[in-house]
Design goal:
The structure is a single chain. The protein is globular. Helices cover 24% and strands 26% of the residues. With 238 residues, it is of the alpha/beta class. The protein is built from eight helices and 14 strands. The chain has helices at residues 6-11, 59-67, 83-86, 89-94, 106-109, 112-120, 194-205, 224-230; strands at residues 26-32, 37-43, 49-53, 72-77, 98-101, 135-136, 142-145, 148-154, 163-167, 172-176, 179-180, 183-184, 213-216, 222-223. Bound molecules: zinc ion (2 copies). One zinc ion binds at residues 1-2, 35, 37, 82, 84-85, 177, 217-218.
């Protein structure tokens, strides 16, 4: 789930689709499910292959986002195993995508129903299936997916297996629940560690260039430069 300030990210909606950037690579997102999770797609061109980043438990919403550009998902990158990011993973896998997730989050990824009980004390209506096949992420992995190169940056803290994904050619960082515009991921859920999150930020995220676009799991996008200057938690990783 979200940041240390749920009221901030739940109040903000990404209303404008990011659409097609100047270089021609499609980047777009939808805000899905009641946790208002951003699901992102990256694709070199229309009517081809796509990479999906995070899959909230709303297969219909993910399907509509892909249909907007007539895309077929070949890979699903999960930033972490929380239900609002992985609940739709099996549905995307069934469309033909490989599901990538860090094994340190298997205790979450493989038991979405237990997560729901833990978070809400009940299981809301709907189907919450774990992905039946996954591919393990490791820090430093370089993945060429749908013709786009992604670098895996393991950033434990929000969860032990949390990863960010860097598309160096475009200077895009998919930051999941590690870093938000003006906030950071909460660390009070089971497996969370504020010290680890601060360390991940200092050693692995903040060394990125100021121009890097930060495309988070909740709320609007930001840049590394903006967060370096203004993020209220910046003193923790200075
Ligand atoms: Zn989360
Ligand atoms: Zn979340």
């Amino acid at each position: 789930m979200g940041s240390t300030q749920p009221s901030v990210w739940s109040a903000i909606r990404v209303t404008e689709p990011a659409g097609v950037n100047l270089a021609g690579v499609i980047l777009d997102s939808e805000v899905l499910w009641f946790a208002a999770t951003n699901t992102w797609i990256v694709a070199p061109e229309r009517s081809g292959e796509a990479v999906v980043i995070d899959a909230p438990p709303d297969p219909g919403g993910i399907g509509r986002l892909l249909a907007r550009y007539d895309l077929t998902p070949v890979a699903l990158l999960l930033t972490h195993g929380h239900i609002d990011h992985m609940g739709g993973a099996e549905s995307v896998r069934k469309l033909g995508a490989g599901v990538f997730v860090h094994p340190d989050d298997d205790y979450l990824t493989m038991d979405p129903v237990a997560q729901m009980r833990g978070l809400f004390g009940m299981v809301p209506p709907g189907e919450y299936l774990p992905p039946t096949q996954t591919i393990g992420l490791r820090h430093g992995m370089e993945l060429r997916l749908a013709g786009v190169d992604f670098e895996v940056i393991h950033t434990p803290g929000h969860t032990p297996g949390h990863c960010c994904f860097l598309v160096r050619s475009e200077e895009w960082l998919f930051s999941g629940d590690q870093l938000f515009a003006g906030s950071i991921g909460r660390t009070d859920l089971p497996g969370g560690s504020f010290e680890q999150l601060a360390e991940s930020m200092r050693d692995r995220v903040m060394p990125l260039a100021d121009e890097t676009r930060v495309l988070p799991g909740h709320g609007p996008e930001t840049t590394i430069g903006t967060e370096r200057k203004t993020n209220p938690f910046r003193g923790e990783w200075a």
